[in-house]
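Justification of resources, computational component.

The compute hours requested in this renewal are based largely on the per-chain cost of generating structure records like the one below. Each record pairs the submitted sequence with a full structure-token output. That output is archived, and it is also reused by downstream analysis tasks.
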Amino acid sequence: MYSPELQNYRDVIVYTPPSYSENPIKRYSNVLIMHDGQNLFNPATAFMGNAWMIQDSLNPQITSGNIDELIVIGVYNTANRTYEYTYSYDPSEGFGGDGDLYLDFLESTVIPWVKSTLRVDLKRESLGILGSSLGGLISCYAGWTRSQVYGKVGCMSSSFWWNDQDFQREVLPART
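The structure output for this chain reads:
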């Protein structure tokens, strides 16, 4: 998928629940955008061969009725991951700061593609964003600064150390 916001390409992978192909008229409301899409399903594409294998967790939970059905949009990272998953430049690291452009890409390109391509009735309350490490940081930032877009946010092992703990010192207080 091309990102006009970042002027680059990346793969996007989609997980659909087991019933998606069984009922071609059913519409889905729960969508979760996950960063580092190459790490979600397949060890062959995952960093160091360690995939999250989220389908192995989701499928049995969905089919047993323990969780609602959802669609996962796995957005692959690029060589610019450390720039795209950070909202500010970190002088101690010497890089970062394209996070708002990355979130613009999700909002202006990925989400409209999801709405036009998949059978979804997407509302803020049922749209989530989730990541870990720098992906957790950009997810928290998205939830905090774009709460009109995301109703659910997952921030796993978030890199709150970024830019001398700027998220806690600057971002959180600015929106309270």
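The longest strand covers residues 127-132. Residues 93 and 137 are 15 Å apart (CA to CA).
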